[in-house]
Specification:
The complex is a heterodimer of chains A (532) and B (340). With 532 residues, chain A is of the alpha/beta class. Chain A is 45% helix and 13% strand. Chain A has four domains: 3-158, Hypothetical protein VC1899 like domain (Restriction endonuclease-like) (Rossmann fold), CATH 3.40.50.10770; 171-356, Rossmann fold, CATH 3.40.50; 361-445, Helicase, Ruva Protein, domain 3 (Orthogonal Bundle), CATH 1.10.8; 451-526, no CATH class. Classes of the chains: A alpha/beta (532), B alpha/beta (340). Chain B: Its EC number is 6.5.1.4.
Chain lengths: 532, 340
């Protein structure tokens, strides 16, 4: 049979109520806990000050009379000041560390009713941190004068999941958080729901960087902002949410945008600039498309994450900033590390919690809940509730979840599609005709091939600044590059006519220069992963 | 063990879960029949076995070398497979969990059937609420058993009150086997009534007040104050001993904190008045104990004041272990309990 061992202080006040026989008529917590008819204390580890030896012996003697099953072991613990947290914690920590626990055969209970409040706090902390493999034991005096003097006891298990009411409360909070992270969209994709569940758990417990991988439009930025709001509501963060797409950072200004600069750091640096990392101090920094960050910036960023300090551009004085980092990318960063395009140490640092956000096409079951969400959002923004006709909705969903629907722009594209439908709706109803038009429109977009998406993916937000003329030209060039195995092969194909007129074929160089105008190169185009 | 030889009991039925367990333990040892109780105290606030139940199980296990399963705090089932009863020297320290007298009531009937003489010492509480005090065992119960041929003597070495405990009772038993039948239906002439007040570390004025009150309730009675050493206290008991030619009854009430001496005396006095007003030979507590004895004898009868829930439950248990049948007959001012 398992034995029950209680560890606790002798109560210098509560257990100390005189030597007369009348001591039996009053509540003494240490004695009372050995008198419970549904608890047998096989061993009592009684901690006390050496000046209290007499009282400890009396209590031991009384326990022997009322509970022959109990062996009382005294341990003298001399505390100069039992109200000094540091001293008490150190003493109890030593006690816990040197005690030989035999958890295979014994159950441990820490009696927290006796001893100072400081001791009580220390017992709690040591138990919570599992230094003491015990549950807490609380004894209480009889509630009424006439009640039995032995009082009552309660065992408090710090494994809160064992309490039905508390567990229900946690489950509700957990469900609310999950729903919050999903913006209240009742998503059905098991893979996505599982991932959100993990993210929720990590967000609650860890301050380590997170890496969100997924195609453009999969909702990385949206999720990062939601995580920030969640952490802020839980008071885990006090600062701001700062978001930047690294694909838009180029040259000197990249350094300066992220890390700030001092006055006169470079031509044009007329005033000091704090930089985004400092703006995120105490808050959350979301670096989208982190793969596009230059190697110098990567080195600086790693230092900033690890040491929580860095040098602003042109400064010889370090500044401090502590922020939670979430990075986003659609690249295969592991591959980039192998090719020397991404620092291995930075990758290791941000790859602690990596989550892959599937694209919309991989979450066909989530299209319907998202569709409802988009309509609700439209209603909120435009003050107009728009609904689908039943047949129209069926038709749209049937197309949207079919393999014809490629959803290369993912949720952003779905959102735009619903916005178009809602805007064009007559009298708040989306008709079948409207849906037919929209399906045509989507088909045309995707029929143009991957390029539309490719330009976006390669250039990020910069793509939006292109003239249509340049964009169409670039789309075609990219398509050719993707079909070729080398820059030279692509150059030969693209300049097939003009190269015949030249004495020396320089088409590879011409193509390289063309791509450089968009800050692109052949290798990067070729590595563009196919959307699956 | 074949399952048909195992007696199954439901511990949630009837009253007095502890009484069912103790009777079953005694009967199981004496008859050599294993038993199993399930749903022990299922409907109580603290379900399952409590400490005081375990002390009885441990004593029984020691006496017959039983194989026991489920003898743990809070256990809802207990299986007891008895071995042969061994006479000898036994010591049980039970502290203030339960009562020495309850352990004795479990162990003594078994030791009547032992192969050799026994001496059993039980230390802990000798005068506890919800248990017959030593005085009852010695003056009311033991003489009737002696009349049935049982050879045992009981000695109180030190009083033990709840909660401090520390008392000791020693019993010596000569094996006598099956008790002789007893018919106790006439109590005979009233020989005397005595009020007694025990005080330990309690002012003697409390004892005086109790006896005054008993005198006021019961008329001219003998009075006795027993002042015990303070170290045995604190404790207070008021008891009334009623002696008839054929039977002596002891009716008890316990003093406790917050309960006035007068209330304690009223409690004992009221029990005595009801008993004396009836024509019954024994009060309900003695009836519980006597039922087992006459069942072991195989025949006999007695009259009692009322049939308590305890008694009916006890009778049901006894009838499961022994080939006997109880008959309850209502009489004027009493109920006759007989076994054939």
């Amino acid at each position: 049979m398992r034995k029950t061992v209680v560890i606790g202080f002798l109560g210098t006040t509560l257990d100390n109520i005189g030597k007369s026989q009348q001591r039996w008529e009053r509540w003494r917590p240490t004695v009372g806990l050995c008198q419970q008819d549904d608890l047998i204390v096989h061993r009592l580890e009684l901690l006390h000050d050496s000046r209290m030896r007499g009282l400890a012996e009396r209590v031991k003697h009384d326990i022997a009379a009322i509970s022959p099953e109990t062996e009382v072991c005294r341990t003298e613990v001399d505390l100069r000041n039992p109200w000094d947290f540091e001293e008490v914690y150190a003493a109890l920590h030593d006690y816990a560390r040197t005690y030989s626990f035999n958890t295979d055969e014994e159950d441990y209970l820490v009696h927290i009713t006796t001893g100072t409040h400081v001791a009580q706090i220390c017992w709690f902390l040591l138990t919570e941190a599992h230094y003491l493999p015990a549950r807490l034991l609380q004894t209480s005096p009889p509630r009424k004068e006439k009640e039995d003097q032995r009082g009552t006891y309660a065992v408090i298990d710090l494994d809160l999941s064992r309490y039905d009411k508390i567990a229900t409360r946690f489950a509700r909070e957990h469900a609310e958080t999950m729903s919050f992270l999903k913006s209240g969209i009742a998503t059905r994709s098991p893979r996505f729901n599982r991932m959100i569940e993990q993210i929720e758990r990590v967000a609650g417990r860890s301050k380590a960087p997170m890496l969100l991988i997924g195609p453009t439009g999969a909702g990385k930025s949206f999720l990062a902002r939601r995580l920030y709001e969640l952490k802020k509501s839980r008071r885990q963060l006090a600062g701001r949410f700062v978001e930047v797409n690294c694909a838009t950072l180029r040259g000197d200004s990249a350094m300066s945008t992220l890390f700030g600069h001092v006055k006169g750091a470079f031509t044009g640096a007329l005033t000091e600039r704090a930089g985004l990392l400092r703006a995120a101090d105490g808050g959350l920094l979301f670096l989208d498309e982190i793969g596009e960050l230059g190697l110098d910036e990567q080195a600086m960023l790693l230092k900033a994450i690890e040491e929580k300090r860095f040098f602003p551009f042109g400064s010889d004085r370090e500044v401090e900033s502590e922020f939670q980092l979430i990075a986003g990318t659609h690249r295969d960063l592991k591959q980039w590390v192998a090719e020397g395009k991404f620092r291995e140490d930075l990758y290791a640092r941000i790859n602690m919690w990596t989550f892959e956000l599937p694209g919309l096409a991989d979450r066909a079951e989530d299209i319907e809940p998202n569709l409802d969400f988009e309509l609700a959002r439209f209603a909120q923004e435009h003050g107009e509730q728009v609904r689908f006709n039943t047949e129209a909705k069926r038709k749209y969903l049937s197309f949207a979840t079919s393999s014809d629907a490629r959803w290369t722009g993912n949720f952003r594209e779905l959102s735009a599609s619903i916005t178009r439908l809602a805007t064009l709706a007559e009298a708040g109803r989306i008709s079948e005709a409207g849906v037919d038009e929209e399906i045509d429109r989507l088909r045309r977009t995707w029929a143009g091939g991957d390029e539309a998406g490719e330009v976006e993916a390669l250039l990020g937000e910069a793509a939006a600044e292109l003239d249509l003329f340049d964009r169409m030209q670039l789309e075609s060039v990219i398509r050719v590059c993707q079909q070729c195995h080398s820059l030279s092969e692509a150059g030969r194909k693209l300049f097939a006519m003009s190269r015949q007129e030249k004495a020396k074929a320089n088409d590879a160089d011409r193509l390289r220069k063309y791509l450089a105008r968009f800050e692109l190169d052949f290798a990067r185009i070729r590595r563009q992963p196919a959307e699956d | 063990m074949k399952p048909e030889h195992l007696i199954a009991l439901d511990g949630s039925e009837g009253e007095g879960g502890g009484q069912v367990l103790r009777s079953s333990l005694s009967l199981s040892m004496i008859t050599g029949t294993p038993f199993r109780i399930d749903r022990i105290r299922a409907k109580r606030a603290k379900p399952g076995l409590l400490r005081q139940h375990l002390t009885a199980v441990e004593a029984a296990r020691a006496i017959c070398g039983a194989k026991v399963e489920g003898a743990e705090l809070g256990s809802s089932s207990l299986q007891f497979i008895p071995g042969p009863i061994q006479g000898g020297d036994y010591r049980f320290a039970i502290g203030s969990a339960g009562s020495c007298t309850l352990v004795l009531q479990t162990a003594l009937p078994a030791l009547w059937f032992a192969d050799s003489a026994s001496r059993i010492s039980v230390s802990g509480g000798t005068h506890n609420q919800a248990a017959p005090p030593f005085d009852f065992l010695q003056r009311a119960w033991a003489p009737l058993l002696a009349r049935m041929g049982i050879r045992q003597s009981l000695q109180l070495n030190r009083h033990g009150f709840y909660p401090a405990g520390g008392g000791e009772i020693v019993a010596s038993i000569e094996p006598a086997g099956k008790p002789q039948p007893l018919d106790l239906c006439e109590r005979g002439e009233l020989l005397g009534v005595r009020g007694e007040a025990l005080v330990a570390a309690v002012p003697v004025t409390v004892a005086n007040r109790e006896l005054d009150r008993l005198s006021a309730q019961l008329g001219a009675i003998e009075r006795q104050i027993r002042e015990l050493p303070a170290r045995e206290g604190p404790g207070n008991v008021a008891l009334v001993e009623v002696r008839y030619a054929n039977v002596t009854e002891v009716l008890t009430a316990f003093g406790e904190k917050g309960r006035s001496a007068e209330l304690v005396a009223d409690d004992a006095g009221q029990q005595a008045r009801l008993y004396m007003a009836s024509s019954a030979c024994v009060d309900e507590h003695l009836a519980d104990q006597l039922a087992l004895a006459i069942a072991l004898a195989g025949s006999g009868s007695f009259t009692t004041t009322r049939v308590s829930g305890h008694l009916s439950t006890n009778i049901e248990v006894i009838e499961k272990f022994l080939p006997v049948e109880f008959t309850l007959t209502e009489q004027a001012d009493a109920i006759k309990v007989s076994v054939a």
